[in-house]
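Figure caption, in words: inputs first, then the predicted bound structure.
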Amino acid sequence: MRILFYDAKNYDKDSFQSTLENFPGIEIEYIKSDLDPRTAALAEGFDAVCAFVSSDVSARTLTILHQHKVGAVLMRCAGFNNVDLSKAKELNIRVMCVPGYSPEAVAEHAMALALVANRRLHKAYNKVRENDFSLSGLMGFNFYQKTAGIIGTGKIGAAMCRICHGFGMNVIAYDVYENPALKDFVTYKSLDEVLAESDLLSLHCPLLDTTRHMINIDSIRKMKDGVILVNTSRGGLVKTDDLVEGIRMKKFAGVGLDVYEEETNNVFEDRSEEILESSVTARLLSFPNVMITSHQGFFTREALEAIANTTLQNALDFEAGNPSTNDVK
Ligand SMILES: NC(=O)c1ccc[n+]([C@@H]2O[C@H](COP(=O)([O-])OP(=O)(O)OC[C@H]3O[C@@H](n4cnc5c(N)ncnc54)[C@H](O)[C@@H]3O)[C@@H](O)[C@H]2O)c1
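Bound structure (nicotinamide-adenine-dinucleotide present):
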């Protein structure tokens, strides 16, 4: 079984090569180019391709893969919004993904962002480097006995509820479905109540038509003054212009973002030598209480191992013709 691995970064190679020891029948070739209609023909002679969130798995790409007898697209991520599933079905190309590899990885990053924004650790680090040992501008507040409001209590939101509970916080949540595993320490409330009562608000629901821009100027006005807002889910949940307005209104003690609108061209790229087409990060980072990272919530050793393991298991299931819960249809 031969897999062509697109958009390979060094850390991908490391995690897949060490996991490959447990999958002796599989051979992987890694290339730097991402999968798109121009690069799809490189998969000639491979049984499957391995792609990621940024790959272009459109109808054109799939048609070329089909012409070169590639039978499966193995997504090494949970999402598949970049795959034309109806075309894949028409061409009988199997699409598989890795749902929920390490919820704790993302939830721990969400809490890290909350702590950094609250205690201004990003500022403190730079101050001490400059021999400025003063504490001005660094005051935060205790999370202990404050209220954490978690929006979306699936796998990652549930992990965030457990972390906040461990901090001694009162945990409230909003979701369209209640998670029974959280009933002992989480109180479900309406979205408006969660917005109004939380000292720390963390977003963990998917980006859907119904959730796009759920954080806008109206919802921001409903929040407590001095709230900390964290988004590790999808940038489109927050209307950036309204967030900027809310920050200017001094609504937030801190804002921590691992995702933001217009991030697509930036994610995982070193663009330090370029003039960027959008000023959204610069605008947000001009505020002292904003901390931004670039979609690294998932990026832990454990998560990468889990991604590699499940992707290679998916490859075996494809080869054997076994059905799998990781099939995307
Ligand atoms: N930053 C990262 O690196 C990273 C990595 C993985 C996932 N994510 C993001 O995290 C999100 C959550 O992932 P997950 O694995 O916990 O997903 P999940 O499917 O387990 O949970 C999502 C939860 O959101 C709830 N939900 C749906 N619509 C809602 C609404 N309108 N209001 C409130 N809740 C709603 C669902 O009922 C579900 O409980 C993903 O959608 C993804 O965008 C980010």
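The two ends are 23 Å apart (CA to CA).
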